[in-house]
Design a protein that fits this description.
alpha+beta; DNA ligase i, domain 1; D-amino Acid Aminotransferase, Chain A, domain 1; OB fold (Dihydrolipoamide Acetyltransferase, E2P); 3 domains; 7-stranded antiparallel β-sheet; globular
Length: 530
């Protein structure tokens, strides 16, 4: 555990990609295979189940440190991270425990099965035997909040440097629903076994946002254009007589979309389709909120299946008849996809994403402006000669999104951030006018510069009206332009409206609060775009 804690410290203390890759590669070379496997799992998001709530853990830490609950809570507000707060306030360890990372992970797996007293005792014993840096990691694992600034791409780079296996092979091997309990380091990383996990998806190819004028991309004939659908990116896999549905976040979602079970009868073995899951009725997609109702469910009720049926709108063919097609140019993959879908007897739950045609880039600009009426987020531009790459790569795939919707809101509440922003007020609640009253309608915490956050923090401290724990109610004076991608009805919100991906586009210091938008303005946007 101590060696992994040192790795966590090394990764957390630098923004240098090369230093992170070197630290990871050294760890993978030196660690025992089972410890290296657990490190890969934790760094790729395969975290253990939370063993204790934050409140329970805070109370246990207060008892172990001999401090009142209120002091732990106030310290947490300053530090911004509960795991770090506890590691700082606990007394020095009174004993030593040299258990390996896998042994500690085995303990963490058993904690949720114990009664409260036994669980608390195991945690107290761990705190008494671990130094501060290892305590920090242990605490993050208990809370289910283990994160460090390392992408899976960096992990594959480091593993390639440590093992000699190519990054492209590693990217595929690390996909899927493996856990350290279901595989070994040798089988996962070092063995080229295509049958090791027949449900395994391919790494998703992701697009960059187009920032320059589209004309800079050259001849329009070299590009394939489609709508950018507002759904869930997914791969449908048919191998060995079974089908599997994976999201780009490596979430196995097969049971949540039973409509796609028809793939067992219509798609031959050795097929992988890449596309977008959309709630669809009639001839048009439904709002994303209807699709979102399925997420987090183990079973989907019949009522939801009827109200919001789902389709997979396919736009790429990654595997056909067991052959990996990713190195073939997009034009060939698209042609084969069209032939495959036309020859197979698909039902209405699987179709192909139609292409958007135009003679000039200026014609595409007009179509872009019409994308929102299609319930699309914009256009996708894909070079016809491009292979299907892994991850986000510049040059061949671009997303050209419509301008966001905007509304001017008044800041009502402010809350301190976390981590490096723990001493700044960065999380805000905004309201619009409903007659003489202000009605909260959204929260946002991104979009401003560090300098603006510092300036606002000073303002919040001088203009606080009330405190509710970490939250402050402030003078309703500051106006912000809130940008967002979508709008929908929401009975859970006081305004009756929820926004998709809200962020602060700019601080409207030129505008008094009285000139902020109204609830009627939001409702008009809902009527037009909801």
């Amino acid at each position: 555990m101590q060696r992994f804690a040192q790795l966590f410290h090394d990764l957390d203390q630098t923004n240098s990609v090369n230093i992170k890759v070197a630290a990871l590669a050294q760890y993978f070379r030196e660690a025992a295979p089972d410890a290296a496997l657990w490190a890969i799992a934790l760094l790729s998001g395969r975290r253990p189940r939370r063993a204790m709530t934050a409140t329970q853990l805070r109370m246990l830490a207060a008892e172990a440190a001999g401090l009142p609950d209120w002091l732990i809570e106030e310290t947490y507000f300053v530090v911004g991270d509960l795991a770090e707060t506890i590691a700082l306030v606990l007394p020095p360890p009174s004993q030593q425990d040299d258990r390996s990372l896998p042994a500690w992970m085995q303990l963490l797996a058993t904690l949720p099965t114990l009664d409260d007293a036994a669980r608390a005792q195991h945690i107290r014993d761990a705190w008494a035997s671990l130094p501060a840096d290892a305590r920090l990691v242990f605490n993050k694992l208990i809370t289910g909040g283990f994160r460090v600034g390392v992408s899976q791409k960096l992990v594959t780079r480091a593993l390639a440097a440590a093992t000699g296996v190519t990054q492209s092979d590693l990217a595929v091997r690390l996909m899927g629903n493996w856990t350290p309990d279901t595989t070994t380091f040798d089988r996962l990383i070092l063995t080229d076994d295509p049958t090791a996990n027949l449900s395994r998806p391919y790494p998703f190819y992701l697009a960059y946002q187009l920032e320059d004028p589209p004309e800079t991309l050259g001849d329009l004939d070299e590009w394939q254009v489609e709508y950018k659908w507002d759904g869930i990116r997914a791969q449908l896999i048919r191998r060995a007589g079974q089908h599997h549905v994976w999201s780009r976040g490596e979430d196995l979602m097969t049971d949540r979309f039973p409509e796609l079970a028809s793939a067992l009868n219509t798609i031959p073995d050795g097929t992988v389709l890449d596309g977008e899951l959309l709630a669809w009725k009639g001839s048009a997609p439904l709002p994303f909120a209807d699709l979102q109702k399925r997420l987090g469910r183990k079973t989907v009720p019949r009522k939801l299946l009827t109200e919001a049926p789902v389709i997979l709108r396919c736009y790429d063919l990654l595997e056909w008849q067991g052959r990996d097609l990713r190195s073939a140019p997009l034009s060939q993959r698209r042609a084969l996809l069209e032939v495959a879908l036309s020859e197979l007897q698909f039902d209405a739950n699987i179709d192909i994403s139609p292409l958007v045609t135009a003679r000039r880039w200026s014609d595409l600009s007009a179509l872009l402006n019409d994308a929102r009426s299609q319930r699309a987020e914009g256009l996708m531009l894909k070079r016809r000669a491009s292979p299907y790459r892994a991850g986000r790569k510049k040059g061949d795939w671009w997303k050209w999104k419509v301008d966001p919707l905007v509304i001017d809101g008044v800041m009502l509440y402010a809350q301190a951030g976390h981590g490096r922003r723990a001493n700044l007020f960065t999380d805000y609640t905004f309201a619009v006018w409903d007659g003489p009253s202000l009605v909260p309608f959204t929260k946002a915490y991104s979009g401003l510069t560090d300098a603006e956050f510092r300036s606002l923090t000073a303002w919040v401290r001088k203009n606080t009206l009330e405190r509710f724990g970490p939250v402050r109610r402030v003078e309703p004076q500051q106006v912000f332009e809130i940008a967002f991608e979508g709008i929908q009805n929401s009975p859970r919100h006081k305004s009756g409206i929820a926004l998709r991906f809200p962020r602060m586009a700019r601080w409207r210091q030129d505008k008094p609060a009285s000139e902020a938008n109204t609830l009627a303005d939001l409702q008009a946007l809902l009527a037009a775009y909801g």
